[in-house]
Amino acid sequence: MTWSQLGPLLWQAFGETVYMTVWASVVAYALGLPLGIWLVVTRRGHIMPRPTINAVLGVTVNFLRSIPFIIMLALLFPVTRAVMGSAIGTTSVIFPLVVSAFPYIARMVESSLLEVDRGMIEAAQSMGSTNLQIIFKVLLPEAVPSLVNGAAISVTTILAYTALASAAGGGGLGALAIVKGLNIRKFDVMYSASLLLVALVQVITVLGSRATRGLDHKRH
Amino acid sequence: MNTAEERPEAPQAPAEALQAPAEAAQQPREAGRLPQIEIRNLRKVYPVPDGEVVALDNISLTMERGDIYGIIGMSGAGKSTLIRCLNRLDEPSDGQVFVDGDNVLAMSGARLRATRRRMAMIFQQFNLLMQRTVARNVRYPLEIAGVPKKQANERVRELLRLVGLEQKAGAYPSQLSGGQKQRVAIARALAGDPEMLLCDEATSALDPMTTQSILELLQEINRRLGITVVLITHEMAVIRQICNKVAILDGGRLAEQGTVDDVFLHTKSAAGKRLFGILPDQEEAAAPEPALRIVFDGAAAERPLISRAIRESGVDVNILSANIHQLNHKAYGQMLVALPETPEARKRLTDTLQALGLTVEEVHPQ
Ligand SMILES: Nc1ncnc2c1ncn2[C@@H]1O[C@H](COP(=O)(O)OP(=O)(O)O)[C@@H](O)[C@H]1O
Ligand SMILES: [Mg+2]
Question: Which among B80, B85, B121 is the best mutation to test ligand 1's pocket, defined by most ligand atoms within 8 Å of the CB?
Answer without folding.
Answer: B80
